[in-house]
Amino acid sequence: MSNDAKVLADVVKDVHKELRQELNKTGDIESVWVNHCRNIARLKKYASSMHKLASEHWEQLRISNPATSRINWTWSFLQYYFFAGGLEIQRRKSNPHTVRPELILKEPKISVLDVGSCYNPFGEYEELDVLPIDLCPALGSVYHCDFLKIPIGEKSILDGQNVLSLATSHFHCIVFSFLLEYFPSSSQRWSCCEKAYMLLVEEGILIIITPDSKAAHSNTKVMRSWREALAAIGLKRIKYEKLQHAHCMAFRKVSVDTELTREDRELLAPKMYIPQDFHNRSDSDSETKNEVKFTEEELAEGFMYLPMLDE
Ligand SMILES: C[S@@+](CC[C@H](N)C(=O)[O-])C[C@H]1O[C@@H](n2cnc3c(N)ncnc32)[C@H](O)[C@@H]1O
């Protein structure tokens, strides 16, 4: 990896690490997040580093080896699902006798909410009607929005480049590309997924892409845990693929019969863990909390490789 790419990648990794350290120190995720959102200098440095890393260095990799690209993967899955019969196949699999209203595409475009968009990487596709949102946009075309805090209402309301609310049951697709591991706590990752469920139309798709340059089987436990947690809220995993640097997953919104209680949620949220959540905690702490155990190797290597960080 070039030195420039390494410096940029370090800025990104350091912010994730600092957030985890701040949470470990205080145990108060609300104040950690409020302070983080106020730290405009840190947010801006992250945004410009991430933008440069992705649009210059990762883009070269995408050109030389398109099969490594999270953007290409997402686009080809969406084409398959919405335009090439994937949705009908899923309907037949789930319940062939149910009569469903037709999923209407706009113009016909797929309406996409790209959360943590940074520089709107999906804006290049004409068939996608993208609303790119970010806590700290790298480009003026991306809307400012803290997805953790944004209210959900009947309509999406935009005010200049700010998002004031997002429409319930509206989007055909929501993208979390390299988003979830930004958050230092599993409860925040869980909230994002619950919100995605509310914002998607029935049969809509949540795409989750999470970085990992290790072999496909290396984080099976983590991926299984996410799959189980999301199935409980009606996000059924219908596609999983390990690319060279990332796990790519598509979850389909299906209706669920039982409503989750607060207790159910408290049990499910920790299932959205990543191995780094357990760094800096003593073994006895983990044991009393009945958490998942990782091998020394898993902890040492971490789950959080960004493409080109380990080369
Ligand atoms: C690792 S970058 C990923 C950028 C882009 N999605 C990609 O795949 O290249 C994570 C992005 O998530 C954004 N982000 C983090 N928390 C967020 C939140 N609560 N609401 C919206 N965006 C958020 C960050 O500002 C950052 O731009």
Question: Strands, helices and their partners?
Answer:
Blueprint: H1 3-26, H2 29-38, H3 40-64, H4 70-83, H5 86-94, E1 110-115, E2 128-134, E3 143-144, E4 152-153, E5 157-159, E6 162-167, E7 171-177, H6 186-199, E8 200-211, H7 220-232, E9 235-242, E10 246-253, H8 262-268, H9 283-288, H10 296-301
S-adenosylmethionine binds at residues 47, 50, 54, 115-118, 121, 133-136, 145-148, 177-179, 182.
GO molecular function, one term: methyltransferase activity
Protein name: S-adenosylmethionine sensor upstream of mTORC1
Enzyme class: transferase
Q: Which hetero ligands occur in this complex?
A: S-adenosylmethionine
Average pLDDT, all residues: 88
CATH superfamily: Vaccinia Virus protein VP39
Structural class by helix and strand composition: alpha/beta
The percentage helix is: 40-55%
Overview of the structural elements:
Keywords: Methyltransferase, S-adenosyl-L-methionine, Transferase. S-adenosyl-L-methionine-binding protein that acts as an inhibitor of mTORC1 signaling. Acts as a sensor of S-adenosyl-L-methionine to signal methionine sufficiency to mTORC1. Probably also acts as a S-adenosyl-L-methionine-dependent methyltransferase. Its EC number is 2.1.1.-. This is S-adenosylmethionine sensor upstream of mTORC1. With 311 residues, the chain is α/β, with parallel strands linked by helices. The protein has one domain (71-301): Vaccinia Virus protein VP39 (Rossmann fold, 3-Layer(aba) Sandwich), CATH 3.40.50.150. It is 41% helix and 20% strand. The chain has ten helices and ten strands. It has a seven-stranded mixed sheet with strand order 3-2-1-7-8-10-9, sandwiched between helices. A hairpin with a 3-residue loop joins strand 9 (235-242) and strand 10 (246-253). The longest helix has 25 residues, at 40-64. The protein is globular. The protein starts with a helix and ends in a 10-residue tail after the last helix. S-adenosylmethionine binds at residues 47, 50, 54, 115-118, 121, 133-136, 145-148, 177-179, 182.
